[in-house]
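Hi P.,

Sorry for the delay on this. The queue was packed all week, but I finally got your sequence through. Input first:
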Amino acid sequence: MQELINLDDFEQAALPRLPAGVRAYYAGGAGDEQTLAANRRAWSDWDVHDRVLRNVADRSLGTQRLGRPIDWPVLIAPTACQRLAHDDGELATARAAAATATPMVLSTLANHAVDAVSPVASAGLGFQLYVYRDRGVTRELVARARAAGCRALVLTVDMPVAGQRERDVRQQFSLPQHLPLGNLAGLASLATAPAAGAGVIGYVDGLFDPTLGWRDLEWLVAEAGMPVLVKGIVRPDDAVAAVRHGASGVIVSNHGGRQLDGAPATAHVLPRIAAALRPMRAAGASAAQPPALLVDGGIRRGIDVLRALALGADAVLMGRPVLWGLTVGGEHGVRRMLELLRHELSIAMALAGCANVAQISAELVERRA
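Then the structure:
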């Protein structure tokens, strides 16, 4: 893997190794994939106006998330069914996360259950939650995450129904029946993959709750016994509402371009959401823990991480690159990918005149005309 020197290299190496259906499922977006492409392109719309003569010989990447120190401002995003990429799946990802001091968020639809992954994910584990029509299932998932020692719940709210993912439709892709959905073990028929022919879209539309509303967020916050982050926010008013209804923070995300095609790129909406949350974050800083602001979508370079922090994010989440690392080399592939990204961020900080994360401020970036 030494010949792979950036995250694009990992993607190019991984794609030919995957079966066509899995490749479509991992790499594809919704509709014409406009949002999928825009996510990646939008980060480069922000120029970085670097500072000079700032003594950056010694740099610290450490920061905080939800009041806890983290070694660097990157988390592993929840991605479903990682055993499609490598048989060790989420366990390999968790070991790589531990080796690189990277917090991880586990998907509801993981192949390995949260109680198996948690002991391995020593840098911290969150649990991503889909809300099922059967609230007993949802309540049990929350209880399992809590018992496993998860530090936060990540509620995904941009999937009331599945997006029209045409690559999956063309490939007639369904999750393999032999790969269990570990978090759903013991929950009747939910522990198996969607029935042959139903595909992922059929699973989502048949089982996820499209009636989810703000009162349900309040219910979950009361039920959780841990901080709840709301993932899938692209509007400032929704971000403010999420915090007002009890969320400990939000994740600016359009589901990697896999849901509403035509949704804005996260790099474009992040500054407005940061501005809308600024009074709440300032108030939180003087009283309780201020609401967290994270972002994902199209981040592939260390300079993208720096841009995200300058635009107001506390940290970023990496999704597809983890899958490419898994495909290429399992645990070692994910670890190598994260190490490359960390090195790029450290170099970007030095060249931008930032010796620590606190020095990455809004004055560094300006949107290109």
